[in-house]
Amino acid sequence: MIAIGSDHGGYRLKEEIKKYLDEKEIEYKDLGCINEERVDYPNIAKEVATAVQTKECEKGILICRSGIGMSMVANKFKGIRCALCHNEYTAKYARLHNNSNVLAIGADDVTTNEAICILRMWIATEFEGGRHEERLKIIEEIENENMK
After folding, report:
1. Out of 86, 97, 117, 132, which one is annotated catalytic?
2. Would the CA dihedral through 65, 71, 76, 77 be positive or negative?
3. Which pLDDT belongs to residue 147?
4. Which among 62, 71, 100, 133 is least surrounded, fewest beta carbons within 10 Å?
């Protein structure tokens, strides 16, 4: 199950991504927004990050105009590794080396087709483990020290 959310600036792209997920029969939970009326992106990012953090959903997708704000909010949650990806290369390594569990996309930075390619790569790529597992443990230690 994937939690998906956007603000008003990412709403149209979110709806296109949902069509792709439907076509691929990938389950998702839409956590907002419901139209292009102005909303505060931190609230949507909080919903998605919480769904992943509590394991209600395995992964999350966040979309706003730049992807920056959404990723900043999501990364305030312990255990969330949100990666803002601009292309298939960054999506691949977000998963392969960093085991990203939330993907952020900037709707103003990519076409719908590019966003689908980014998402497809992100979903298809498995965490490599090995030396990267040690680095994730360091990240977890830093979280434990600083997220109280």
Report:
1. 97
2. positive
3. 86
4. 133
Query: 85 pLDDT exceeds 80?
Result: yes
97 is catalytic: yes
CATH of the domain at 40: 3.40.1400.10
Which residue range is the domain that position 106 belongs to?
2-146
Number of domains in the chain: 1
Asked if 86 is an active-site residue, the reply is no
Catalytic site residue from 8, 33, 57, 64 = 64
Alpha-carbon span 98 to 15, nearest angstrom: 27
Residue 49 has pLDDT above 90, yes or no: yes
